[in-house]
Every structure is written in structure tokens, then in C-alpha cells.
Write a structure and sequence with these properties.
By secondary structure, this protein is α/β, with parallel strands linked by helices. It contains 15 helices and 22 strands. It has two domains: 262 residues, Aldehyde Dehydrogenase, Chain A, domain 1, CATH 3.40.605.10; 185 residues, 3-Layer(aba) Sandwich (Aldehyde Dehydrogenase, Chain A, domain 2). The chain has a seven-stranded mixed β-sheet with strand order 14-15-16-13-12-18-19, sandwiched between helices. A six-stranded mixed β-sheet has the order 9-8-7-10-11-21, with helices on both faces. Helix 2 crosses helix 6, helix 3 packs antiparallel against helix 6 and helix 4 packs parallel to helix 5. The protein is globular, with a radius of gyration of 23 Å. The relative contact order is 0.14.
Length: 480
């Protein structure tokens, strides 16, 4: 089923490889005129077949023993590892991701499926004493988690492999069937992974990987046959999905405009090194990319001197070159929108310190200061290689400024003051506080998600499995 230049990759429908009359051409963001390959959009009839198969397959997956779920997940992990170079090259071409970052994403997916196997084998419950009053004497409770039902999953373009893995892997671990809608901009990576999933022997109909139109995706969101909806993408789309999702469980991993605080006690060289990565990796197209930088007044000048020197050294170019730091944005529309936001900030009085001018789909690392808080690059999610600089004199003021946002995914805090670290953990309105690293940090077994407009629920294998299962209690009464 490997991709060729002449034949589109078929789509994976409930254990079968099928085609449709609606082709989907995939292009290289670094050279939009050059096709990477092609596949198909699923038709409404194919969608219906996939959903019916998922409903039938759930009767098998929900009773699949832990050792079998673990085996499937370990074989998928091993299969991804065995095809590491191939998957990374494909991911780099269709997503425009620098090849060294693409290799890391493949490695993370390998870990994600391996961790899911371990979690599948330790879905433990509790023994709960119930004899807390005389009338409940002789009772004891036992809890266990049961698979919730078929899962509808929608994954985004920026991590086409690992963010899809964070839906597929916990679904298999929990005993759920799943229909996955991969991103239309870069679906070929997950369709290739579907070959590995198929070879691992998932129950017939348990997994479908179907590129589909927005209209068909909307139908999936509202489909009551699914018991869980898990979506990663933009806040505006995600919250509208929740309104249409009906009674199903909903997990939303949405956007942010992540802040980072650099305290006067911070190790500046380390902070600069990590924030260069946090702000500009994958051209800033990461929902926990550093967008707002809060620098203590005492170290601001020293930090900015080092930081701007680092920005100047970043290499923008061909994502297939291992020396490239930043590749293109996903398409011309994204680069054009970024240009409009930067121009707006400058027109409102911001000072441009680096970058600021698009070249096709490429946008250089851009740094702004003196930006009004009402500018789009401050108040909304830039999702671009753009960082905005602010100062502060009191640590509590930095916390307040970070919290002055519609979003709340993660925040980085560079400090060697333990009191400030604890204060940040207690006061920041975010899903994760990352001390002495950037908010862009994530490893795949930690709980990951946000508050406010940034989402609902948590990913990370153990926590995703909790969202894909229902807890049930059995009470045993001893006759009196």
C-alpha cells in the first residue's frame, strides 16, 4: 500500500482499502505547486459503512482482553519504529516540517503506542468501604472502567502523526472502536500508519482512517452512534462542535497564546536557548508555541541581546535539509494572515525587532515589542513564528499579565526562586506550568490540556483512556 507518484493512496475503511470518486491532492507547503501524492475523500456511503462497522466492532473490542489490546499496541509501536525514516520523510514533505522535527514526531508516536499498551494492562479499579453508617453495614464497593463506545476523532495538520496517535492509541487501549478523520492537508502519514495498524490485527471494523470533507466531518460530530468525540484544532471550530455533539462525551484540545515568564533569577543562557525553540519550532504552528514573553526589567536588556542574536542565527529553508530550523507555514493563506497581523501591530505602534516579512509560504522568525494588548498578535492565537515582548517589575504582575487572556493551555516560568515557582503553579490559569522550560514542552504520558477557551478534558494516555471509558461500581452486600 506504499505511496507512489502515480497512484493515489487508498483510504482505510473498517479493515479494507478502498477508493472513491473524490480525489484529494496533497502538496508540499515548501513548494505548493509540487504534489506530494494523493488519496481520496470518503463518500457519504463510505462514512456510513465505517460507522456501522465501528458499532458492530465495539461488541468485540469492549471485551478484548488486556493482553490482546497490549499486543496490538506494541506491534503498532514496533511497526512505526521500523518505518521511522519513511514516515519522517513523508511527514516532512506533506506537512513542511523540518526533517529533524519529523523524526522526533515519529519517535514520539512510537512511545505513545508503547505507553498505551502499558496503560491497557493497568486499568485498575478501587475497593471502596461502604460501611460508613449503620444502615450500610456489610457493604463493600468495587469499581472498574468500561469502554464508553465508538469514538469519533478529528486530528490537526501540525502533528499529523502524534496528535492522531493520541486519539487512536487510547481508543484501542480502552477497548473502543474508532473512526479517525485525519487532516486534509497532510493525510498520507496516518494512512501509511493505517497499514501498520492493519498488520497488527485489530478486530475487523475497529479502526477506520477516512479523510473527509468538512460537511461529512460535521455529520460525524453530530452522529449519536458515537459515544465520544475527541477533537484537536482551533477554538472557534472546537466549541461549535461541542454545541452540536449531543449527549456524547467531548474532549477538546484547542489553541492558546502561550506565555513565558523569565524572572530575574533565571539562567538566561538556558532560557534563551529554550525560548528560541519554543517560539519558532515548526514555524510557530504549535498550540503551545511561545507567543508572549514576559521579561523581568532587571534582565530584559541582557536577555534580548542574547535572544535576538539567536534569532538571527536561525536557518529558514528547505524542510528536507537537516540543518533547517524553520520550514514553511502550512499554506499561503497562513503566511498572508500572519503578515496582516504583524502589519496591524506595527500600525498600532509596535516596534519590529526581527523578521516581519513573508516570502510565499515562508515567514521568518519575528519579534515585536511595545505591542498594544488589543492587537491580534497579543489577544488571539498567532500560530506563527511570532513572539511579542513585555516587561515586568513584580512577579505577581507577570502572572496577572499571563492570565489576561482568553486562553489557558500551558505557561513556562524560568526562575530559580522556589517561592515564585510555587506561586506560579498556584495562580496561573492554565492546564500546565512548566518551570525552567518553555510552555511548548510535552511528553506523551503527562496530562495535557487547557482551561478557558483552550479546551476541555486532558490527553496523555491514562487521562485520555479515562475520557473514553465509564466508571462502574459493583456493591456487594453481606446478608445480615
Amino acid at each position: 500500500m506504499t505511496l507512489t507518484a502515480t497512484k493515489p493512496h487508498p483510504i482505510y475503511l473498517a479493515g479494507r482499502w478502498v477508493e472513491s470518486d473524490d480525489p484529494l491532492i496533497v502538496t508540499n507547503p515548501a513548494d505548493p505547486a509540487t504534489p506530494v501524492g494523493a488519496t481520496y475523500h470518503a463518500t457519504p456511503a463510505q462514512y456510513e459503512e465505517a460507522v456501522q462497522a465501528a458499532v458492530r466492532a465495539f461488541e468485540v473490542t469492549r471485551t478484548l482482553p488486556a493482553y490482546e489490546r497490549g499486543r496490538i499496541l506494541r506491534e503498532i509501536s514496533a511497526g512505526i519504529k521500523a518505518r521511522r525514516e519513511e514516515l519522517a520523510r513523508l511527514l516532512s514533505m506533506e506537512a513542511g516540517k523540518p526533517i529533524r522535527d519529523a523524526l522526533v514526531e515519529v519517535d514520539r508516536a512510537t512511545l505513545t503506542f508503547r505507553l498505551a499498551a502499558e496503560e491497557a494492562e493497568r486499568m485498575v479499579g478501587e475497593v471502596i468501604p461502604l460501611d460508613l453508617m449503620a444502615s450500610s453495614k456489610g457493604r463493600v464497593g468495587f469499581t472498574r472502567r468500561f469502554a464508553a463506545g465508538p469514538v469519533a476523532a478529528i486530528s490537526p495538520f501540525n502533528f499529523p502523526l502524534n496528535l492522531a496517535a493520541h486519539k487512536l492509541a487510547p481508543a484501542i487501549a480502552a477497548g473502543c472502536s474508532i473512526v479517525l478523520k485525519p487532516p486534509s492537508k497532510d493525510p498520507l502519514t496516518m494512512l501509511t500508519v493505517a497499514e501498520i495498524v492493519d498488520a497488527a490485527g485489530v478486530p475487523e471494523g475497529a479502526v477506520s482512517v477516512l479523510p473527509m470533507s468538512r460537511e461529512l466531518g460535521d455529520r460525524m460530530v453530530a452522529d449519536d452512534r458515537f459515544k465520544v468525540l475527541t477533537f484537536t484544532g482551533s477554538p472557534s471550530v472546537g466549541w461549535r462542535m461541542k454545541e452540536r455533539a449531543g449527549k456524547k462525551k467531548v474532549v477538546l484540545e484547542l489553541g492558546g497564546n502561550a506565555g513565558v515568564i523569565v524572572d530575574r533569577t533565571a539562567d538566561l543562557d538556558w532560557a534563551v536557548k529554550r525560548i528560541l525553540v519554543g517560539a519558532f519550532a515548526y514555524a510557530g504552528q504549535v498550540c503551545i508555541s511561545v507567543q508572549r514573553m514576559y521579561l523581568h526589567d532587571e534582565i530584559r536588556d541582557a536577555f534580548m541581546e542574547k535572544f535576538l542574536a539567536g534569532v538571527a542565527s536561525l536557518r529558514l529553508g528547505d524542510p528536507s535539509d537537516p540543518a533547517t530550523d524553520l520550514g514553511p507555514m502550512v499554506d499561503t493563506a497562513a503566511a498572508t494572515r500572519t503578515q496582516r497581523w504583524v502589519d496591524e501591530a506595527v500600525a498600532m505602534g509596535a516596534r519590529l525587532l526581527a523578521g516581519g516579512r513573508a516570502d510565499g509560504t515562508f515567514f521568518p522568525p519575528t519579534v515585536l515589542e511595545n505591542v498594544p494588548l488589543t492587537a491580534q498578535v497579543c489577544s488571539n492565537e498567532a500560530f506563527a513564528p511570532v513572539a511579542v515582548v513585555f516587561g515586568f517589575s513584580k512577579f505577581d504582575d507577570a502572572i496577572r499579565q499571563v492570565n489576561d487572556s482568553f486562553f489557558g493551555l500551558q505557561t513556562g516560568v524560568f526562575t530559580n526562586d522556589l517561592g515564585n515557582a510555587w506561586r506560579a503553579f498556584g495562580e496561573l490559569e492554565v492546564g500546565g506550568v512548566i518551570v525552567n522550560d518553555v510552555p511548548t514542552y510535552r511528553i506523551d504520558h503527562m496530562p495535557y490540556g487547557g482551561v478557558k477557551d483552550s479546551g476541555l478534558g486532558r490527553e496523555g494516555l491514562r487521562w485520555a483512556i479515562e475520557d473514553m471509558t465509564e466508571i462502574r461500581i459493583m456493591v456487594l452486600a453481606q446478608p445480615q
